[in-house]
Amino acid sequence: MKVFRNYLDKIKPNFEKGQKFEKWMSIFESFETFFYVLGQTAPKRGAHVRDSIDSKRLMIMVVFALVPALIFGMWNTGYQHFIMTGPPPDFMDAFMHGALKVLPIILVSYGAALGVEFLFVFLKGKEIEEGVLVSGMLIPLIVPVDVPLWQLAVATAFAILFAKEVCGGTGMNIVNPALLTRAFLFFAYPKNMSGDKIWISELSEKLANKATLVDGFSGATPLGQVASAKTVEDLAAFHDKYSLWDMFMGYMPGSIGETSVLMILIGATLLLITGVASWKIMLSGILGGTVMGLILNFVGSDTNVYMQLPFYEHLMLGGFAFGIVFMATDPVTGAQTEKGKWIYGFLIGFIAILVRVLNPAYPEGVMLAILLMNVFSPLIDHYVVRGNVKKRLKRIK
Amino acid sequence: MVVEADGKNETETFQKADPATMEKAHILENILKSGNWPLIKQRPYDIIANPKDTPRDIFVTAFDSSPLAPDYDFICKTEMSAFQAGITALSKLTSGKVRIGVNSSSSIFSKASNAEVFEFHGPHPAGNVGTQINKTLPINKGEVVWTLNALSVISIGKLFETGTYTASKTIVLAGSEVSQPKYYTITAGAKISDIVNSRLKNEDTQRIISGSVLSGEKVEEDDFLGFYDHSLIVIPEGEKPEFMGWILPGFKKFSRSRTFSSWLSPNKEYRLDAGIHGGERPFIVTGSFEKVFPLDILPMQLLKAIIINDLDLMEELGIYEVAEEDFALCEVVSTSKIEIQKIVRTGLNNMIKEFS
Predict the structure, then answer these.
(1) How many CB pairs under 8 A join A and B?
(2) Among B298, B300, B343, which would you mutate to test the A interface (most chain A Cβ atoms within 10 Å of its Cβ)?
(3) For residue range A190-222, what is the model confidence (pLDDT) as tens digits?
(4) Using only C-alpha atoms, what is the Rg of chain B?
(5) What is the CATH number of domain B19-162?
(6) Fold of the CATH domain B170-236
(7) Which residues neighbour B351 within 8 Å (Cβ) at sequence distance 6 or greater?
(8) What's the gap in Å between the CA of B244 and the closest CA on chain A?
(9) Model-level pTM?
């Protein structure tokens, strides 16, 4: 290690001001700080002792928290692939199939995100901002496994560029870049982002080759299946197919990392123990979803049986758990005041289920709910801040 | 500028009298002439008080809750009559009251007369006068309060008790790099090298801090102890780069965040250095400042108002109530490694420029 450090120290002067590679200093620094937490010390005045946490540590915690969902997602990708044509596969077969499908998606996502990021590192002359570490890992987990890689690359580059860099980088953005990637894919290439042919690995090829699929097979996500249910019997058939246990464990088609509530809960536990994500947003999000689910259950409807889906199943299906745990809690795009977090989280849960059930165009509403509340969170904060101001003014009698 | 000492110690004498029997103007004159005046600060702005003002109240904090701070109860226990004289003198200078914030476990300061006593308990910043004001009688726009600590009150009190300016003070020399951490009675403004003289371990590069480890000033051996400071803290400088420090478990890393494995051993003792452990970034995390900032003020929103220099917003969000030290813990826990106390000072200075 000493050799490596010495090497860095030896080449560093070449990047100093006035030297040959001056323009590349920010790139050099980005790599140097990847390997080393620098020995920079506190200035002459101020706090002389500092917490060991920095923004890199913060971001890597989120990446760690995503790992269970990622590993499960790899296995589930393979599992869903094999059971459409035959008996359940061995664990390793399923995992290897999934891993080979998911790894290219991760590489493309990180590649496109880092490409744009480094361009701006170079242009701005400031070292890399770590938000991209998280975005690059979130994106693969919220897309369908058969997403065309070039589309993913375009969408990622677009989102990092317009949701993040244009706003001024990590910490300045208004909407979550990973969610914007998904929204971009969804609206620019709807054919490849919805319907019932994209959620299971290689389903389109199988259909094109007229392969025999198992009886009662549907390539749609559970939410898609519920949305297309016309009668109470259809809903009962859905419940025969997916037990609560399946929903909790995540044995069903969907975006790569979103299906397993259990794995997401493991990640959530890490985020909450470390204090990286806000428990207020998570709790109020679940409350919001529960309230809307209960309202819909209470009102009921014979023409829209989706309204009869029990509220607790809403919380376990689709991207709800993933969105509340990993997307809504993004501190930069979420509400920044403590009171605001309650309102922000609640409305995300509430609107997500509302859009899901009452909007016929989208079987899923989590992405849109979070993006909408990302945009509204400054407004929520504004009123919380005004409340604090008013309290201060009231003291003057 | 160099002041050469002539080797003689002479003092000017002032009237020795019970401040209870003295006129306000006379008290003011004595404090001003003796050179004790700068001990009295004012809020808003945390600057030296203007003797022409009559403050709404005078707040005295009777304990320092910051790490390695001197224990006022210990160093003041023989000075209680001077403390009372100081309080009586100060009580003549305000239209309101002298209000003393005492530690709930302390007994010596709570018996003071001519003043109202508030008890505080809890961790730092309970001993900061800014916290104490905000939690009792917060400052509103247009009001001026004066602030000082019990040690300053004693210094003022001695003036009336003895008739001379007392140029000695008791300080604490502490920190992981000090071989004999102890209280020392020194001459005010003593040279650092005279104080630390052969009392340091000299293992690594060291940082000597005049004042609090949370908001003091880094000094060198040929500098002098700060006017307001009652502690000299020596910690390792910590300038060594750390390989993969942001990914490894971090069993030995101090953090309030539980993102390092060290949180599993909560009673662990650390040899903290002055490293900032990361690069500067924009504000990312929300909610962490509120956990260490007990004032009824939105810390990050106020800081952002200062950064964009929106004077109206700064006023609305409570800049009149704060000083740099109130934000010290925010600076400690921040993942963004922004110099928060410096931002607060900039905000206060901009307000002064605009409004006075």
Answers:
(1) 211
(2) B298
(3) 887 777 888 888 888 888 888 888 887 888 888
(4) 21
(5) 3.40.50
(6) Ubiquitin-like (UB roll) (3.10.20)
(7) B44, B45, B311, B314, B315, B319, B320
(8) 5
(9) 0.92
